[in-house]
């Protein structure tokens, strides 16, 4: 059984971590499988939006597979990260298409890293969230972008104590878009968001995500400049003509992505 399943339908790619017996922990195969999935999604023009979810087991992802890490260190004398093509999931972060996290359980460590790379997040009530690296002697350089998603004192508490927080508390700070009662409801909400995004003008969606991400990375002035550059292709597109035309004619627009 593959640790990563990818399904593409109606412009929506669903990526599922399928390791419930290991709390959806990120093994070498799973991490490399995720890198393959994001490369496939980025290259597929039929994909408008992606959902990241996992097999139901109470945990969205426990992060790094510590048992495999211990075995690799013992047998090969190297750190597990050296076996991964993209250990910090930068391919995912660089994906131009929107990614929605359907978090159907608690998440910690690398599971949190995956959600930070998502653009929208749907969580499950009663679950917990954290960055536990300080409790196991690992590191979380990937946590820095969370400073634009959570207040600084809260992020400091998370990274310095390694404690798990109720998702309801993080929801109050705006970390999640929605929290739902059941895993099925989490996935349904994520799919509804994905359908709405997939129905929008594709060039506009890509430019909108890119503009927000650029502002996170570059600050307001730099983000505004980059946002205007990203939207040049939008304003010059056939879709920019089709949208107003369809509105005037009181019909649904037919997007071509050109």
Please explain how this structure is put together.
The mean pLDDT is 94. The chain folds into two domains: 4-199, 2-enoyl-CoA Hydratase, Chain A, domain 1; 202-249, no CATH class. The protein has helices spanning 28-43, 66-76, 90-93, 110-116, 152-161, 167-172, 183-198, 202-230, 232-235, 239-248; strands spanning 4-9, 12-17, 49-54, 59-61, 99-102, 106-108, 120-124, 128-130, 165-166, 178-180. It has a six-stranded mixed beta sheet with strand order 1-2-3-5-7-10, with helices on both faces. A four-stranded mixed beta sheet has the order 4-6-8-9. The protein is globular. The protein is an alpha/beta fold and 258 residues long. The longest helix has 29 residues, at 202-230. A hairpin with a 2-residue loop joins β1 and β2. Belongs to the enoyl-CoA hydratase/isomerase family. Keywords: Lipid metabolism, Lyase. One of its GO terms (biological process) is fatty acid beta-oxidation.
Key terms:
globular, single chain, 2-enoyl-CoA Hydratase, Chain A, domain 1, 44% helix, 2 domains, Enoyl-CoA_hydra/iso, four-stranded mixed β-sheet, 258 residues, lyase, six-stranded mixed β-sheet, lipid metabolism, alpha/beta, 10 helices
């Amino acid at each position: 059984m593959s640790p990563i399943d990818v399904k593409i339908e109606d412009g929506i790619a669903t990526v599922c971590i399928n390791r419930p017996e290991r709390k959806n922990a990120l093994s070498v195969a799973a991490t490399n499988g995720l890198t393959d999935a994001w490369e496939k999604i980025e290259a597929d023009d039929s994909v408008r939006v992606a959902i990241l979810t996992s097999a139901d087991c109470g945990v969205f992802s426990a992060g790094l597979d510590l048992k495999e890490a211990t075995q690799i260190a013992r047998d090969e004398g190297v750190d597990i990260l050296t076996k991964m093509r993209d250990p910090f999931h930068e391919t995912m972060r660089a994906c131009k298409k929107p990614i929605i996290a359907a978090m159907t359980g608690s998440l910690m460590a690398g599971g949190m890293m995956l959600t930070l790379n998502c653009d929208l997040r749907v969580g499950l009530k009663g679950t917990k969230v954290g960055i536990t690296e300080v409790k196991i002697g690992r590191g979380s350089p990937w946590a820095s972008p969370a400073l634009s998603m959570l207040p600084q004192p809260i992020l400091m508490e998370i990274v310095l104590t390694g404690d798990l927080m109720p998702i309801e508390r993080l929801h109050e700070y705006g970390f999640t878009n929605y929290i739902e009662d059941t895993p099925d409801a989490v996935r349904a909400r994520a799919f509804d968001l994905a359908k709405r995004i997939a129905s929008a003008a594709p060039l506009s969606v890509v430019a909108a995500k890119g503009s927000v991400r650029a502002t996170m990375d570059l600050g307001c002035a730099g983000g505004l400049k980059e946002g205007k550059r990203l939207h040049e292709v939008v304003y010059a597109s056939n879709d920019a003509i089709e949208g107003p035309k369809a509105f005037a004619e009181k019909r649904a627009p037919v997007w071509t992505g050109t």
